[in-house]
Each structure stands twice: as C-alpha cells, then as structure tokens.
Amino acid sequence: MTTNDVTLIATAAMGLETLVKSEVMDLGYTDVKSENGKITYKADYKGIARSNLWLRTADRVKLLTGEFNAYSFDELFEQTKALPWEDWLPEDAFIHVVGKSHKSTLYSVPDCQSIVKKAIVSRLQDQYKIYTNLEESGVRYKIEVAILKDKVTLTIDTTGAGLHKRGYRIEQGEAPLKQTLAASLVKLTNWTPDQPFVDPFTGSGTIAIEAALIGQNIAPGFNREFAAEEWEFLPPKMWDEALEEAEDLANYDQPLDIQGFDVDHRAIEMAQNNALEAGFADLIKWKQMNVKDFKPQTDVGYLVGNPPYGERLKDRPEVESIYKALGGIMKDYPKWSVYVMTSHEEFEKHYGTSASKKRKLFNGFIKTDYYQFFGKK
Ligand SMILES: C[S@@+](CC[C@H](N)C(=O)[O-])C[C@H]1O[C@@H](n2cnc3c(N)ncnc32)[C@H](O)[C@@H]1O
C-alpha cells in the first residue's frame, strides 16, 4: 500500500450492481467487490476524480475510512476515534454526519451520528492540539456511519449532489427518469453508436441524451463539480489530469443516428433545450409525434422507451392502446430490438409478444420490468 491508495464505494440502485461493477472495471480497477447496492474497489487518489467523472450508472462515490464491529456506544466511539481523521479532514472542516442502521444492536441512528461526530472532533482536537471547540468554518465533509448486522462502515462522500445530476437537465416534465437509470437502460441494450436509436416517449429527452453521451464516449460528469474537488489532501492536479483524459477519450466525431419523439410538443421543446445544454445542438433529432404514427426508417435499429405506465386506473385504456399500437408496428420490423420499461404487469399481453428477457428495475419507488425484445440477426 502506498499512501495514495484508497478504497472507494460506488453506490448503485437496486438491480444495477452488475452495471456499476462493469463500469468500475472498465475504468481499469480490478480489485472489485459487489454487494447489495455497493461496489467496493481499490483505487488511487485520481480514482476519486475518474470515478465521479465517468460512472454513468452509479449514484455516488464514497471514500471508505473505516470498518469494524461495534456493539456499544463506547466501542463505536473508541474505534471511530482510532481512525486517522486528520489525514482527511483539515482543522476547520465542517463535519456533517449522517447515518443508517439495520439489524444491529446500535439502532438509534441520531445517537450513532452524534457519537461518531464526537469521536471525530475529539480525534481532531488531539491531533491539531486545539483545546476549544472546533470552528467548523471550512469545507463541508459529509460522513456516513452505516451499520449493518453490527458492522460499522464509515465513509466520506466524494460526490456532492448525486451523480444523476449531470448538469444538462434544465427542464423536465412530469415523470422524468433519473439520468443514471436512463444511462442504465441504454447500457442494458446491445446498441452500438453506429446503429439507429429511437426513444418514442422521450419526455425531457433523458434516454436519448444519455445515449448520445455514451455514443460519443463523453464523461457524464464533465460539466459539473464534485464535493472532493475541495478536499485539501487530494492533489489538485489529479482533477485536471482526469479532465484531460476525459477530453482525450471523447469521440466528438462519432456520427450518431439518435431520435426522440413525444406526442407532447412541450416535451419536445424541453428535450431540445436539454440537449442544447448537454452540447448536442443538432446531434439528436427531435420530433413531435404520436407513437401510433411511428414508422422505422431502417431495417435494423434500437428502440428504448419509458412510456406512461397507467398507474391511475382511468389512464389504463389509453396506455394499453399505446402498447398495442407499438407492438403492432414493431412486429413488421423483426430486426429492431425493442426495450420498454413499465410497471404495467400485462405489458406483454397488450404489446402482443413475449419478451426475450425481463429485468426487474426500480424507477424511484415504482417497481417496473424492463421488457427486452431482441431483434433477429
Ligand atoms: C414517463 S414519460 C417519459 C419521461 C422521459 N423518459 C424523461 O426522462 O423525461 C412518458 C412520455 O410519453 C409521452 N406520451 C404519452 N403518450 C404518448 C403517445 N401516444 N405517443 C408518444 N408519446 C406519448 C408523454 O408525453 C411523456 O412525455
């Protein structure tokens, strides 16, 4: 181990762990472990910048500072205090502790938070030889104490606003997808950037914009900031190097055939504005269109959609007629691969075909299936 080594945890929404793990491995990190909702891996300092810049499907990246078992508040205090917090936090750090506890002896989260905070403050007072209260007037460090079956995991959040906040979505409609989920929907297909790509229910354009970012290999975090950029112990040049690497790897010359449609003209205006913000002025083609009028212009292609789900009973007949129309259209284009995410449990019945594969995904708190119909080769 050199002092430059860190252990990072990329958090993943339920069901997306394999995607996040493969993204971490694509970044070149090999010592990777995947558990429920978190991918733990070894990296160097620069890995903090690279992970935040590049991970499309993860929620955030945390720096692991300690792991131990604790069954009493004393044990929690002593083992937290034994960690070298002065390696990470300056003496004026603003220390914000959040917590969670599950199936553990120490179940009172507010108490655990306040003990962890006291232990860190006490450690810093000793190390920095401060005999009064800490001022906490500096950079904010969000520290998490997570306890699962009596095992305590302490982390510092490196990300800040969640990774889904790419910075381009200045406008959004009624039920926008998180950008991380939209990127996951694209990554779960076999689409390659040389193939046509259509989202016929584009709303604010999230899926199409994420496809364009993937298609041109643009780092999704390129236009935003991260909490760890303010950390003093990290060399500032690592951020510049990670940004330079992202600039070198972006393939702005990759031609793309990506289209987004929506029945609502206001959605199309929003999608256009968001795409402009993402830097794709003319790259994605937008059109106001009812999916019932969609007609693929090529033999082969990929359709990825997040249609209305019909959660309210009164919307069901309309939604079901949309599914039926889409199925009717796509059956004449057997070489197209179709991917639809919906919570409607009878989607396949209305679409008219059984999916090649289904995958359970959560859209926020809504349990959905991602229906995948593979095109004929
Ligand atoms: C769940 S939203 C999609 C949200 C989108 N993925 C986003 O991130 O903003 C469903 C979209 O389908 C559109 N829609 C509803 N009926 C449609 C139809 N018949 N044809 C095309 N679009 C339709 C709605 O206007 C809405 O924007």
TrEMBL record:
Q: What is its EC number?
A: 2.1.1.-
Arranged from A to Z, the UniProt key words for this protein are: Methyltransferase, Transferase
Q: Which residues form the THUMP domain?
A: 60-158
Q: Which Pfam families match?
A: RlmL_1st (PF22020), THUMP (PF02926), UPF0020 (PF01170)
GO BP of this protein:
methylation
List, in alphabetical order, the Gene Ontology terms for molecular function in this entry: methyltransferase activity
Cite the InterPro entries for this sequence. DNA_methylase_N6_adenine_CS, RlmKL-like_Mtase, RlmL_1st, SAM-dependent_MTases_sf, THUMP_dom
User: By its UniProt entry, which CDD domains does this protein fall under?
Assistant: THUMP_AdoMetMT (cd11715)
Question: Which PANTHER family does the UniProt entry name for this protein?
Answer: RIBOSOMAL RNA LARGE SUBUNIT METHYLTRANSFERASE K/L, RIBOSOMAL RNA LARGE SUBUNIT METHYLTRANSFERASE K_L
Protein name (Swiss-Prot/TrEMBL): N6-adenine-specific DNA methylase
Organism of this sequence: Alkalibacillus filiformis
